[in-house]
Design brief:
The chain is mainly beta. The protein is 9% helix and 26% strand. The strands form 5 sheets. It has a 4-stranded antiparallel beta sheet, with no helix packed on it. Strands 7-12-11 form a 3-stranded antiparallel beta sheet, with no helix packed on it. A hairpin with a 7-residue loop joins strand 9 and strand 10.
Length: 198
């Protein structure tokens, strides 16, 4: 019975990802066997979320880097089954999984919070609101989303090649509950995977 529940959960996740316009290939050969292992690609310059030096270390920074057959870009995207995101449709956590092997570390915004440019780092996965990202579909670019952090109410932002990712608020909004994505390229992402080598 447990095995059937696992298969059903995996099928539901694959269906959800397909609904978000996901690709059907893989970032590294180790990800080939995992249909929801890949990375998020930035709209403006095509750079992707990358773990600095591919090091699965607590506190290591997340940067923007060119996509490729690179274990530093391997993340398992999943909907937390417990914690504050359990009942939020589309909410995701991004677990670093080099070569498809979960590291136990997730993309995290440790603070300090709304109104600051929080630096994005790896922290032990715990399904807390600091590791939950909620998608908002772009109104201008099909297939792309802004990822809002549940703790900070700010949006995942690329700052250019090799620069650390941040999450920032949009414009002059003073109330976190009123913060909505403004559609800027630096905050638009889509799930991508690259073909495995033949």
């Amino acid at each position: 019975m447990r095995r059937l529940a696992q298969i059903g959960a995996a099928a539901a996740l694959v269906t959800f990802l397909g609904g978000l316009g996901q690709a059907a290939q893989a970032s590294t050969p180790g990800c080939v066997s995992n249909g929801f292992c890949g990375t998020q690609q930035h709209h403006g310059d095509g750079l992707v979320i990358d773990v600095f030096h591919a090091s699965a270390t607590v506190g290591n920074k997340l940067i923007s880097f060119p996509n490729g057959d690179d274990r530093a870009t391997d993340f398992i995207n999943y909907h937390p089954a417990s914690g504050p995101a359990a009942n939020i449709s589309g909410a995701k956590a991004f677990a670093y999984a080099p070569n498809g092997n979960p590291s136990g570390l997730c993309l995290s915004d440790p603070g300090p919070g709304f109104g600051t440019a929080d630096l994005i780092v790896l922290r032990p996965c715990n399904n807390s609101k600091f590791q939950v990202w909620v998608p908002t579909a772009s109104e201008s670019v099909s297939g792309y989303f802004s990822w809002g952090n549940l703790a900070s109410n700010q949006f995942l932002t690329s700052n250019g090649l090799r620069a650390q990712l941040t999450d920032v608020k949009d414009g002059t909004v003073g109330d976190p509950s009123n913060n909505v994505p403004d559609g800027r390229d630096s905050q638009l992402w889509k799930f991508v995977q690259l073909p495995a080598a033949a």
